[in-house]
Amino acid sequence: MQKIPLDLAAPGMKLAKPVTKSDGLVLVGTGVELTTTIIARFRASGVQSLTVQGRPVDLGDDGGNDLERIAGRLDHLFRKHGQDRFMVTLRNMLRRFFAERIAAARAAEEAEAAAIAAAAEAAREEAEALAAQNRISLVPLVDDKPEGAPARPEIAGGSGAPRESGR
Q: Angle between the 66-77 and 85-143 helix axes, to the nearest 10 degrees?
């Protein structure tokens, strides 16, 4: 998940969070794939940034996410409270919290990548099955033609009969 300025949004990106106007009105929900029309409507509505799935844009932050950056700063933020037991306990709780959130975010990214890979594999298998099915169903059609007749492929999903024009 990555928050990007609207100027860097591109068609094909999917939203990780809903996009809202300044008054809280939801323009588009989570999971919607961006198109040029949607991006243009965001500009017209005054949207400045949006959160997309994955990390499609290199913003120069070395690929780290906000949780990792915050977790890395905990020692700096609590540097003056090394002797205070309450503050040390709070720092340790925050470390555990951010470690769990980072692990959950990584697991979600890995699950998303696995789901995309599984969907691509399923689509490939379906395409191969359809191609194999088409090869099998076309063989009898070619053999049924009388010798010397030109081979004409059948129209997919239709009867194969010529279309009549409505003129």
A: 170
Q: What is the mean pLDDT of each run of 10 residues along the chain (167 residues)?
A: 81 86 82 88 85 72 64 82 89 88 84 87 86 62 53 51 52
Which ranges in 46-148 belong to alpha helices (H)?
Answer: 66-77, 85-143
Q: Backbone dihedral region of 160: left (phi > 0), alpha (psi from -120 to 50 degrees) or beta? A: left
Burial 13-39 (b: 16+ CB within 10 A, else e): bebbeebeeeeeeeebeeeeebeeebb
**Coil, strand or helix at 76:** helix
Contact 51, 16 (CB under 8 A): yes
pLDDT at 164: 54
Q: What is the pLDDT of residue 86?
A: 93
Number of other residues whose CB lies within 10 A of the CB of residue 11 = 11
* 56, 109 Cβ separation under 8 angstroms: no
Cα angle for residues 90, 96, 99 (degrees, 5° grid): 140
